[in-house]
Every structure is written in structure tokens, then in C-alpha cells.
Amino acid sequence: MAFIADAALGIVVDELLKLVVKVAKQTINFKSNFKVLENTLNSVTPIFLEIEKLNKVLDRPKEETALFIDQLNRAKELVAKCSKIQWWEAYKLYVHSKKLEELDRSIYRFFNIEVQGFVAVTSLKAVAGIKEVNDKLELILDRSNISLSGISSWGSVPGIRDLVIGFDEPLKDVKEMLLKDNKTVTVISAPGGCGKTTLAKMICHDPEIKGIFKDNILFVTVSKSANISVIVQKMFNIKLPEFQNDDEAINYMEFLLKQKGPSPILLVLDDVWIGWESVIDNISFTLPYYKILVTSRFSFPRFSPVYNLKILNDQDAMSLFSHSALPKDRNSRIPHDLVEKTVSGCKGFPLALTVVGRSLYGHPEVTWRRELKKWSDGKSIFDTNNDLLGRLQISVDALDEMGGSSLKDCCLDLGSFPQGQRIPATTLMDMWAEVYKMDYEDLDTYSNLVELAFRNLVNIVCTRQSVHEVDGYCSENDVIQHDYLRDLIIHQTNREPVEHRKRLFIEITGNDFSKWSTIGMYQTVNARLISISTDENFSSSWFDLTLPAAEVVILNCRSSLYTVPQFIDKMNKLKVLVVTNYGSSFSKLNNFQLLGSLSNLRRIRLERVSFSSINTFLPELLSLQKISFTMCEIGKAFMNGSIDLSLVFPNLLEIEIDCCDDLVELHVGVCNIVSLKKISITYCNELSKLPDEIGRLVNLEVLRLSSCTKLLELPESMVNLHKLAYLDISDCLSLSKLPERVGELMGLRRINMRGCEGLSDLHQLPLSVKNLRLLEKVICDEGASHLWKQYQSHLKNLHVEEVKEDAFESLMRVISPIQLP
């Protein structure tokens, strides 16, 4: 055989590389194949050139080079053919893609066979004394079968501490999710300190899991700043080259994992942070029984369903705490009630139970009582436990990375509400829309709430069985924050001097004002948000505060008689007022009339308040745009026709009335507030009639009358509401007909009439419905769908959504949700 000189190899490689790059730029086809081939050539060719030099020194034959050049020439022909294939030639694209893959593999196979592996190269290196060959050769051998056969272990699985409590059920549930055939990625999600990593370790050491995956279990801690290149380096206990980019790292990872197949593989990625969703997608390779288990403080809905790890119940919390805090022989002199109170203060967090328990281990009773007293005196558990503070603080600090402070501000605002209470989503949205200039209509506010839930800082709970979000309406949702995260927010806020705080959280027990009255006497507080919580023993006698910057005031009360603080009338910037009664009976409000002096007040929310007691003292609220009543006594106020509501609320845009059981008839004065755009009356089971004058509300766009079970009819005058776009009469059980001229609602786009049994019994809808040209969607029961489908030839854009449900679901939807104080 005629031997070819070194220069010939360089020329052929150079020509092929130029051709690959050129074709890759000119066509979108085979881009990934060309990239892999280019990397392969760049990796393999320098080795051949080095070997060629050694062969020349040793006067050794050059068969390898000749055969390699032959491979390269065939590759040039294949690449040239690929450049002529068009995007629509699907079969050719598929066939030639496979050929390119086979070419890449054949180059590596050739290298391993002809060069005779590591031993042959080592002998050449020893004879010639050229160390550089080994460094470059490792680039290929570490990717080859020869190198992989030397891997004794992968990313080792950390051990589990001696005692794990309360994880039997989570272990069972996650194993079931993990082993599902149709699921590659399983996510365990929870706030920091809940035990996600512990659960992942338990899964890896579980006998059933070990029996399936054997030695092919990789456990890698990702952490906040890691990238995929670093992770791939951690996964395998062999030396890998420096990766030029993430794609190269992912290609190496897939190559190495394939060598371990077809045996099942479990990859555990612990402590994964936001932004890794696409990486997880990219490493979800098509391999036989390949599973990825992720732990994260983020929920990652892309990989739904996500397993949300809960805090420990009382019994398990006590067991875990006792293991950390008490002698192993349980021969402790600490009173049981003191242990219980300390456990209660840890609120079910495994990390807190362990950290606090260890800090108290071996200490006398007086130390325990001193720690407990600090908590009862307003000190935070975070004041003395830096480890716990650091672990949870990470989640809050990470909110700064969102490119603005609004998300973190929204999170910190959650400290305004009492511990353990549900917060209506719309309450938060009202606050944020005004304070942070968010667009309420476009749901910027709600997206922030969803983002906080994604980060496991809150839970969003649907309080009612059936929710159809229309125009972003989400009054059905409540928000729950974990007690520990609330404590963290208050701790972080209270570290700043009072005069510099953006939020002022005031908690008053009985009539003890000693702490706050001193502040009011000597300094001005520039907080934008004020939260004042009082208990059932509060006498409604206030101290004075100067709060000129306040934009939101949240009053959390429990007493049956409550006086609005006098200092509110000096809050010239106040935009949002929220009064929530968490007591056992309605609160009667005094001093409500002083709100008339607030020229910027735009939103008022009242819950469990007796509004009827103040109906004769209603001030003129000239700037008010929205008022909300939830579980309030308002019946007398809304039946008193002597009040001209158009003077009280001259610029009102929205009114919400929810679960107000004494509302029998809507105040006719509401129909004079022509500025109104939205009326929502829901779960008011005694409401039987709407005013005949409702047609005056010519600017009304949304009318929600959901679950008003005794409402008998819709006033005929409502056909004058030409701007009405959405009508919700769902679960209005007694409603038996629509207005005959309903077709004159020319702006109507959506109707929700599910659960309207009276309408389902109709033989036909009013003929005028065929004039609802803009109608896009009707939600109704199966029995009523035919009423609308017969008009679809007239209503070209109409989609009829049929709802199926059993009798129990129907009953649960119309019963007002029980909201305990």
C-alpha cells in the first residue's frame, strides 16, 4: 500500500471541516449532526497527527492514516449529498441523519480498533517521550468503551442520618410516581428545611429502588450557581475534558449514560433552582428505563404532577424533636408541657425541630423557659438560630433576582395578615395593583401570586368546587402562607429601625399600647403599609400615630365592637383599606365616617363586618373605585332606599358582595352608580330579586350572580346593558327563564349558566339569542347544550362547553364554603 504523507491527512481534514461548516450555515437540516461530527473531527484528528509524527520517527507503517483518510473522503461525499436534500423530503432527512450518526460512531470504532487502545499509545509515548500525546488522547479515550469499563462508581449516594421520622407515606407516594412507565421526571418540592434531600436519599437507599437500578444511581447536588458542565463533571468519577459549551456537556453526558444501558438508570438532582427546567428537558434522554428525580424549593409545574412535601404532623414533630433535644433514655427533667410548647413553636419544620432541639439538649429547665419567653415576648426563633435563618432566608433573597423589587415586596407584604389565616387572593391583588402600579386587568398581580406559589412561599387554594376563570377572575382562590415564612418576614422587617421600615406590623394584646404609643409620641413613621392586629379584649381606644406615607392599611380585629383609628384621617396617601374580623361574631364599625376625608382612597375590603350599623353615616367616598363585602351584614343597608348611593360612590367601578346571607334585595341606589363596570354577587342565597332599574348601568361589563339560589328572574331592563360582555348565572337554581329581548345584549361574549336547573328544563331559548353575534362561549350542563347548539348556524363564533358532574359535586358547588374565623 502506498503511504500518504502527514500533509495529506491535514488537507483532507481541513476540506471536510470547511464543507461541514459551510453546509451547516446554508441549511437548517442536520445542524445537530454536523455539530457532533465537527466536534468529533476536531477531537480525533490531532491524535492521528501526533501518532503520525511518532510513526515517522519510529519508521513505523502508516496504515492507520491511510484508512482514516479513506473514512474522511467517504464522509465528504455524504455531507455533499446532505446539502442537496430539501426540508420537505422527510424520508431522506431521516435516512441521512442516521447515516451521519453512523459515520460519527464508525470514526470512534475505527480509532479504538486500529490504534489498539491505551496500551499501544502508552508504549509509543514511552519510546518517543512525548507527554502531550497522552493529554490529547484522554479527550477520546474518556469517551470510549475502554475508559468507561474502568468506572467503578458514579456520583455516590450520601448516607441517611440514624433517625428519620414521618417520611413513610411520602416515601411510598414518591416511589409510586417515580416508577410510572410514562413519567421520566419526578419533582419533590417544598420550602427549605422540610426534608426534601432526606426523602431523596431514602428513595436511593430503598431496597426496591436499589433492586431495580442497582449501581446505576447517580446523586448530584446542583445548588444555586451550578451549570450543566459542572454537574456532568460531578456525575462520573473519571477525568473529562473542558467543555466548550452546555451542548457539548450534554452530548458527553448522553454518550456516557448510553454506555451504562440498557440497565435502568436513576439520576437524582438535589437542590435544583429556577432556570433549570430547560436543562432537565435536554437531559431527559430517550434511554431504556431512565428516571430523573429532582428536589427543589420550586414547584416546576412543567413536570406536573409535582410531589409537595408537607411539614410534620404533631406526633411526628414531637418524636423528631425529642430525639434531638432529650436524652436517649428519655430520662428528662424537662416538663412535658414545656416540651410541647417548644415543639409547637417549631411549627412542624424538620430543620427547626432538629436545630432547636440540639441547641437545648442538656440544658436545664430555666434555659428552655427563657427561650420560650423570648418567643412569647415577640422575639423570633430566627434571632437565636442562624442556621435556620440562613436556610429559609435564601428563598426570600432569591426574589431580588427577578429584575425588580416588586415580587419580593409582594412576599414581604404577606406578613400583614394573622398567622394561620387564609388570605383572599383578590385582597392581595387590590393591594399590589395600587401600591406597585400593577395592571390588575392583565393579571400582573395574579402572576406574582403564582410566582410566589411556584417558589413554595405560599399555597394557592381553591375554596370552591368549581372555578371557571373568566377575564382573570379569581375570587374563588385563597392564599395560605406557612407560619415559619411569616415569622421570617416579620423578623426581617423588624431588624430595621421603625422610622425606616416600609411596612409596620403592629400587634396589640388587650389594651397594652406601651411599645407603640411611645413611637407615636416621638417620631414619624414612613411605612407605606400598616398592619394592626388586635384581639377580642381590645377596647377600641386608640393611641396616636403619624403615618404620612401610608398607602395600605390592614386592620385585623376580633372584637364585636371596633373603632376605626382616628389617625387614619391624616393619611392623605391612603389608597387601600382592608378590615377583616377574625372573631366569632360580626364587628360593628365605629368612626367609619372619617374615611370621607381621604381623597386618594380607591379600594375598601370588609369581611365579617356589620355594615348595616353604619348605613346612616355613610361618608362621600369621591375617589373610591372598588368596594368588597365578604360575609358581612349588609341587608338593611342595601334595602334602605333613602340613601343616594350615587352621591356616596360617585366614581365606583366595581362592587363585590360574597356570602352575605342577609341580602334579600339589592339597594335600588346601586343602579344610579352609572360608572359601575363590574357587579359580582356570589353565594348570597337569600337574594331573590334585582332592581328593575338595573338597565341604567350602561357602562356595566361584567355581571356575576353565581350561586344566588333563590334568584327568580333577571329584570327585563338588563337588555339595555349594551356593554355587558360576561354574564355568570351559574347555580342560580330558581332561575327559570332569560329575558325575551336578551338578544339586545349585543356586546355579550360569554355566558356561564351551569347548574341552572330551571333553564335546563326549557324547550327553547328566546328567539332573540340568534342576535348575539359576538357570543363566543356558553358554559352549561349537558341537558341545556341543545338549547344553544340549534343557534350555532346564526352564531358562527359560538362554542358550547358541556359540564358533566354528579349530584354530590353539584351540591358542593352551591353550598357556601365554610370559612372559620
Task: Summarize the structure in words.
Pfam families: LRR_14, NB-ARC, RPW8. The protein has 821 residues and is α/β, with parallel strands linked by helices. The chain folds into six domains: 6-148, no CATH class; 168-308, Rossmann fold (3-Layer(aba) Sandwich); 314-377; 397-483, Orthogonal Bundle (Arc Repressor Mutant, subunit A); 496-633; 636-821, Ribonuclease Inhibitor (Leucine-rich repeat, LRR (right-handed beta-alpha superhelix)), CATH 3.80.10. Helix content is 38%, strand content 13%. The protein is built from 27 helices and 24 strands. The strands form four sheets. It has a 13-stranded parallel β-sheet with strand order 9-10-11-13-15-17-18-19-20-21-22-23-24, with helices on both faces. It has a five-stranded parallel β-sheet with strand order 2-3-4-1-5, sandwiched between helices. Strand 9 (503-508), helix 23 (514-522) and strand 10 form a beta-alpha-beta unit. Helix 14 (314-325) packs parallel to helix 16.
Q: How would you summarize what this structure contains?
A:
Keywords: Leucine-rich repeat, Plant defense, Repeat. With about 800 residues, the protein is α/β, with parallel strands linked by helices. The protein is built from 27 helices and 24 strands.
